[in-house]
Amino acid sequence: MISAFTGHSPLYRSKKKKNVGKLFTPGVTVAFSILVIILLACIFAPVIAPYDPNAQDLTQCLAKPSAEHLLGCDQNGRDLFSRILYGGRTALVSALLVVAISMVIGIPLGLISGYKGGVIDTVIMRCCDVLLSFPSLLLAFILVAGLGRNTFNAVLALGIVYVPMLTRLTRSLTLVEKNKVYVSACVSLGYSDTRIIYRHILPNCISTILVQITLDIAYAILDLASLSFLGLGTQPPQADWGAMLDEGRAVLLMNPMLSLAPGLVIVIVVVALNIFSDGLHQYLDQSQTALPNIDKYEKKMNRKLAKEGGAVDG
Amino acid sequence: MGKFILKRLGQMVLVLIAVSVLIFAMVRITPSDPVASMTNGKNVSEETKQELREHYHLDKSYPEQYAIWITGVFQGDFGESYTYKQDVDFLIGERIGTTLSLVLMAGLLAILIAIPVGVISAVKMNTWLDKLLSTLTLIFVASPVFLTALVLMLVFALELKWFPAIYQGNGIREMILPAIALAMNMVALTSRITRTTMIEQLNSDYIRTATAKGLPRSRVIVTYALKNALIPIITVTSVQIGTMLVGAVLVESVFAMGGLGDLLISGIKAADYPVVQGVTLLMVTIFLVINLLVDILYAVLDPRIRMK
Amino acid sequence: MDNLLEIQNLTVELMSTRGIVYALSGVDLAVRPGEIHGIVGESGCGKSMTAKSILRLHNPQRSRMRGSIRFEGKELLDLSNREMEKLRGTDISMIFQDPMTSLNPIMPIGAQIADMYRIHTGASKAEAMEKAQELLAKVGIEPANKRCKQYPFELSGGMQQRVMIAMAIACSPKLLIADEPTTALDVTIQAQILELLQQLSADMGMSILLITHNFGVVAETCDRVSVMYAGKVVETGDTLELLQGASHPYSRALIRSIPGGGAKGSRLETIPGSPPALFEPPVSCMFAPRCPYAEEGCLKAYPAMIDCGGGHLAACFKPLDKEVPAHV
Fold first, then answer.
1. Strands across the sheet containing C5-16
2. Which B residues in the span 18-57 are in contact with A, Cβ-Cβ below 8 Å?
């Protein structure tokens, strides 16, 4: 029968579809695994850590790495490995809180500003302009100067600092969505503004916001570390990656590990978050996907087909 | 064009006034008595305290204090430091040279490296070279500026002893490591942006036209794609310079450079309001002036904005 | 008569986000000197792909071309990149669908034309600028000395397309490829642009390969026409002859779906089904699944071009007679 001819076996096509533009590419998988491992290690720090992060063993000052102390000890005889695990708790929880604060304030402001327009929009945007005329960390500096120096205030300060960028992003996305037909349809159906904003516009913007949020977590880790490094965030003796870097530099020559180890962990986490965010972005916006070289792709597909073909035929 | 600049200048002054109010309010969110920091925690008589309060206008209401500060600022008087007991404008004057030369050097270095790296990555997209460069830049994006500074110091100053580990204000050689440390982050971010924009531009219709016209590839890349790509690149770079001003604070801390950053941080720790206010306002002003210059440059490059 | 451009069995494969697309599978096309040759077909049938292939504008990393493209007897697929650069703009030039995005947004139009002229002729800046003004006048943009300092965004769509044409004819090419040059323009402007192209073709003896999805445009402008379907030319012939009696069922269906083509008051005819996605190399006639005349044999082999007389070619096992009604 003629109409039965489609030219393509559905199985063959679905396989091809999957191969380009999936979320968990090898790079993203590795990045995601690393993030999960580090996150779990920090959550279960009390179980994993061999020592109390603040216990001082003065006989072990600046001890080199050994079986008892995996990464050695700092100048106060505290186990570096345990401190990195506990420091991770401070750093990661703080970073997540920073982003949470900025989301809770920034996203609603952006949605309202974009959807309502008019005076509200102008007021919100002018406020953002003023806040954005500060280089971002500088704003955090003076907020901490006013609030007092500790972990919580650093988190609060950075949370506020991140608001205007997120507001602007959400606003610009809302402006695009607002002009689409489905919004007019909602209005014509008599839906309330709140319903339209949160049930219809927000879900359409959320994927782009999500990409930004994963990146913001990475920035928050870096910025929190900077604040702690300058003594404006987490205060000793509490363990925190940034603060540990600061403490370690006094003995940089004697045991560089004290600064480099927490530094390296920061770099790894931030790189992983960046790769994950990039992957997410490419997954959500397929037009951005970098296409593979055609010859390489064909070779790969042929190999795959040969493998699977053998299994199917045999 | 003149009208455009004038308008932007007017906007900038308005923003600066709002910023000054914000700075003044923010350092005072939690009420504290700065007298303690003036006397270094020593016990002094209530009379002396009162004298100090009067001297620094702390006995007046907040709006009055603000008015005194801001009128001073317009006359170039930023007030007197609580801890140094010197004029803030003098303290800034002593240190601003170090910070500005550091930022300038790092900025130039960054742009000179970042744009070629980004262009090469874009043109050689998905080759091993692009992958190598992308990996390197990703690492430098992720590395906090103070970590880069510490590693550079450890390797090139403490181990190899090619450069001094501490900045003492003697010549350009001492500035090299701090400038590289500060530049690397911007190199990474700018080259990534350059790569993305260049790829976008190279895929655009007018590049196809230029190619179809038979222009040589090199000319298509440089005079067509790069020139168009520069517009978004410059926008991002202008924000980066703000990041760099703050990054300088961190680098100064590592190399003990005694610039504006050290002044600011010690001011924050000592609740030295005049210092914090003065340095912050100055940094914001520098940032805004750079943004204004970038906007003008933008208009020069893009006729669509110039003719509006 | 020697053909100016001869494409034989051209195959193009492209990388897409959903795998390899077999965009062109065996295109045969010939353009004679001085003629206006139309390529017509639905979107996605490979019209623009053919055009871009002639100038080799595909990304070499993500595409593969096989077959033969001969221009004045010279094999274009064998040329080096440098030789290709020299040929683009001088012997063959091209204009595109969307003139707004096809012009460099931050360069004055005069400079864009002059730039191209200088590269190919080595003329001085002043000479090139003079030439640019002369060309602008030729395509009807006046006063040229003022207009040449304007930027693309200051011009209307029709004017922008005129600039594109001026640029394309700067070095008096023998072949101009016009890829949907009027699709983005208003109907009245469309006619002006087509008229300009016709006039330039006649004045300069330049062949034009006009790509369009609009049979009306073909009927008005083209000497000969090729109909494409699913990455292949299915029929070629004189415009008039083809319009009156297409041999390929697809061409005939396409002509019947032109508004105003049928009797007044009659329903517009549509072609049932949709063109196939090109994720696999074709093994049989691609139109067969939608063809009302298809038989068992049509699904087994790929039809070759057969001569229906007088240079009228059709790729069909059962070409329609002129008398056969469209529907059985």
1. C19-31, C5-16, C63-71, C74-75
2. 18-19, 22-23, 26-30
User: Can the peptide bond before residue B164 be classed as cis, meaning omega within 30 degrees of 0?
Assistant: no
Contacts of A17 in chain C (CB under 8 A): 18-19
Please judge whether C299 and A5 are an interchain contact, meaning their C-beta atoms are less than 8 angstroms apart: yes
- Nearest CA among C26, C49, C70, C39 for reference residue C208: C39
3-state secondary structure of C251: helix
Dist. CA C44–CA C47, nearest whole Å: 7
How does pLDDT run across B256-287, given as a tens digit for each residue? 888 899 999 999 988 888 999 999 999 999 99
For all residues of chain C together, what is the average pLDDT? 87
User: Quick check: A144 and A227 in contact, CB under 8 A?
Assistant: yes
For the sheet containing C36-40, what is the strand order? C92-95, C175-179, C207-212, C36-40, C224-229, C232-238, C313-315, C305-307
Which residues in A have their CB inside 8 Å of a CB on C?
2-3, 5-8, 12-13, 16-17, 19-21, 286-287, 289, 291-295, 297-298, 301
* ipTM of this complex prediction, to 2 decimal places: 0.89
The pLDDT of A72-81, averaged and rounded, is 82
Render pLDDT for C148-181 as a digit per residue (tens, 0 to 9). 899 999 999 899 999 999 999 999 999 999 999 9
Q: Is the pLDDT of residue B37 over 90?
A: no
Residues pairing with C237 in the sheet: C225
**Mean pLDDT across A38-54:** 87
Against chain A, the chains showing at least 3 CB pairs within 8 Å are B, C
**With an 8 Å Cβ cutoff, are B227 and C106 in contact?**
yes
Q: How far apart are CA C180 and CA C39, in angstroms?
A: 10
Q: What is the pTM of this model?
A: 0.82
8 Å CB contact of B147 and A145: no
Buried b (16+ CB within 10 A) or exposed e, B1-25: eeeeeeeeeeebeebbebbbebbbe
Q: Nearest to residue A68, comparing CAs of B223, A76, A60, C125?
A: A60
